[in-house]
Each structure stands twice: as C-alpha cells, then as structure tokens.
Amino acid sequence: MAYSERVRETYQQQLGGIKDAGLFKQERFIHSSQAADIEVEFPSGSALKNVINMCANNYLGLSSHPDVIKAAHEGLDTRGYGMSSVRFICGTQDIHRELENKVTEFLGTEDTILFPSCMDANAGVFEAVLTKDDVMISDRLVHASIIDGIRLCAAEHDTFKHSNMDHLEKKLQLHADKRFKIVITDGVFSMDGDTAKLAEMVSLCEQYDAMLFLDDSHASGFIGKTGRGTHEQCGVVGKIDIITTTFGKALGGASGGCVSGRKELVEMCRQRARPYLFSNTVAPVVVSGVLKVLDILSASTERRDKLETNADYWRKGLTEAGFVLKEGDTPIIPVMLFNAKLAQDVSRDLFDEGIYAIGFFFPVVPQGQARIRTQISAGHERHHLDKALEAFIKVGKKYDILGKTKQEIIAKYGK
After folding, report:
1. Which of 49, 127, 177, 187 has its CA 20 to 30 Å from the CA of residue 204?
2. Which fold has domain 66-299?
3. Does the structure show a pLDDT above 90 at 156?
4. What is the pLDDT of residue 20?
C-alpha cells in the first residue's frame, strides 16, 4: 500500500493527540562530550547554552575520562573500527573474551557473554533458556527491556507486587508444578531509585527451587562496598543465577551489555539467543574502553565513594527544600510532580536557569506519576549541586510546590 494522504493524516492526528495531552517528547542536542557541564541546543536551531547535566547515567563520571578515551583510541588503532560480523562467524576477537572474563571476575559469576546492549541481552536471554513448560515471575516495575524479552518467550508469565515478598511467595507456591521457575527483578529500579530485596528473594528461590534473574544496569560499578552491584550490597554474590547489565551507564557510558551467571545458562545464550546470533559484535573501541573502566574500578573505590557522598547531599538538600521525593538510597532521586505538563514546564524553566533535567511522564512512567528524575554523578562537584539546588528551589517556588504534599500538588495541577 502506498503511503497515502489517509495514512499520513492518521499519524499526524496521533502525533497531534500526543502533543495535546502534554506527552510529546522533544530531544535536546548536546554539542559537547558527556560530563557534568555540557553545551546544549534547545529548542532546535537555538543558540548553544551551557548547563549542568542532572539526568545522565554517567554515575561514575567516566564517559569522558582521559584514560578511558586513551584506551578506546588504542583499541581503535590495534583492533579496528568494527567487526562487520556476528560473534560465531568471524566477529570474535581476543579482547571480547578478555572482557567476558573480566566481567565474570568483577561480578563474581561463572561465565559471561557480551551483547550489543543490555536491551539485547534482556531480549534474548529468556527465550534462550526457557520453554512453554516454565514460568517467569517478574516484579511489576521491571524495566521495559525485560518486559520485551518476556514477550518474546513462550514460557508463562506472572507478576508480583513491587518488592512484596509475601506476594512473591504466593506466586511461587501457585506455580509449583512448572518445570522451571524464574524470578525476575531489577537491582535498582530505574524510575524510582529503590533497591530490590535480593537477600529475601534468594531465600525464597532456594526454598521453592526457582532461579533468580537480576538486571543490575543501574547498579554495576557503584552499588555495594566495591561497586560490584546490588548482589554485593545485599550479601548474595554467587547466588544470582542470571545477571544482565550494561556498559552504557557507569561502566564507561558507551554501549554494549552482557548476560553473566551460571555457565550452562550463558552457554545456552551463546547457542540460542537471537540478538547475540544475529547482531554485530560490540565494537573493539567500546570493548577496549570498558576493559580500562574495570581496571579503574578495581584499583580504587574513590569514585564510588564520592558518588555516594554527592547523592546523600543532593537528597538532603531537596528534602529540606520541601520537594516530594521517592524514597531510596541510590543516585537516582526522582522529584515527584504527578502531572505531565507540570513536569515539562518545570524542566523547561530549569533549563532556562542552566540546569538540564528532563521530565518523565506516561508512558515512560505510569499515568499520574510524572516526575523530574535527577541522577547524580561522581563527576558533579559541590558547586554543581549547589547551583542546581538553587535553581530547583527557584522554580519550585514559581509553581508553588515546595512543602506541598502529593495530594496538594495533584489538587492544583491534576494528574
């Protein structure tokens, strides 16, 4: 069918509806490297503005670290720009296996397999290891990429209420007759910033003969005493059957991801995971950069420790100012606004004040749960945080949301 005016008008109307509902997402164009201070073009065609970035996944500030960039250059010079192939044909270099071995050691697992992204890892892992005779039981707030992977798998799917261990136990009892059961959770939930109850989940999985899957993308590198992740923080290293994570956040900020865990499950992914079998290998330049990141993290916890201090300072400042925050103990600190238009208006006003912080709203978060998700970095200095806090307070006063409850904000602006 040709792309007729009827087709064009249908999509134009749908896009118009998204705009009218206050849900239209506009991209900002960054004209600098990723850092605490960035140059941004917004709206499109406007002059560049210097702003403080408060919403990147650059938790450890390593995206532009000179040693990482140097390692990436060396990888480019010695191993080339790209592999032009998938792993099992002619896309595997020595450095790919070197990175897999290093990640295995870092996470405390048995084996690791690289994927082009953690989204690809989550898309491929369930179909590779489960059948229609199995069941997947997921926390209701797991990441969208996990949901997509679940949809691609023939196993039955059920859910449990967010971090509700009593409800999880009931679901494990309900599915006692299944061949295999796998419990699925994020380590740190990316929209709310809270942490999974991994120790309790491990205990339940052992009691009911279930496997445990963990996406630790928003934890790898900085959660736990030495930054190994939520399984380190919860004291269950070696007891998680499958861990997926990304190299696109704290571990360098470029791209790539992995499945790490029991060696048989990793090998099943190597044999059957479609995003692994049919996607180009992670580029050598990325692999070389991540190898250097792991060296940096293994040498010192300085960046992880600074990040923790920064996050505590930022949360304390917002709380004392009177903002409604999601509870948590991670560098993800959502400022709750509950209304999509309000979230976008606050974001724009913050940008005018030199602060880059994006509004999140449906369908990224549930209806009525709009927010500004702030994310702290070890790259932030105290002057960055103080200036950002000053701007948040100024804009908060403008919209009369300081010291107001959730109910009061909703009463004023609606959901």
Report:
1. 127
2. Aspartate Aminotransferase; domain 2 (3.40.640)
3. yes
4. 86
The residue from 249, 292, 380, 384 that is catalytic is 249
Q: What is this structure's pTM? A: 0.94
Q: Is 218 a catalytic residue?
A: yes
Could you tell me the two tokens for 385? 């945080």
- The arrangement of secondary structure in 35-61+301-413, i.e. its CATH architecture, is Alpha-Beta Complex (3.90)
Length of the chain: 415
- Residue in 96, 90, 126 with CA at minimum distance from that of residue 261: 126
What is the tens place of the pLDDT at every residue in 261-278?
999 999 999 999 999 999
Q: Is 255 a catalytic residue?
A: no
Q: Give me the mean pLDDT over the 273-298 stretch.
A: 97
pLDDT greater than 90 at residue 2: no
In this predicted structure, what is the pLDDT of residue 1? 58
Least confident among 39-48, 51-60, 121-130, 218-227: 39-48
Which one is catalytic: 218, 306, 380, 384? 218
- 190 in catalytic set: yes
The one catalytic residue among 63, 138, 190, 288? 190
- Among the listed ranges 252-266, 274-288, 353-367, which one has the minimum average pLDDT value? 353-367
Domain ranges of the chain: 35-61+301-413, 66-299
The whole-angstrom separation of Cα 80 and Cα 327 is 45
Q: What average pLDDT does range 123-145 have in this prediction?
A: 97
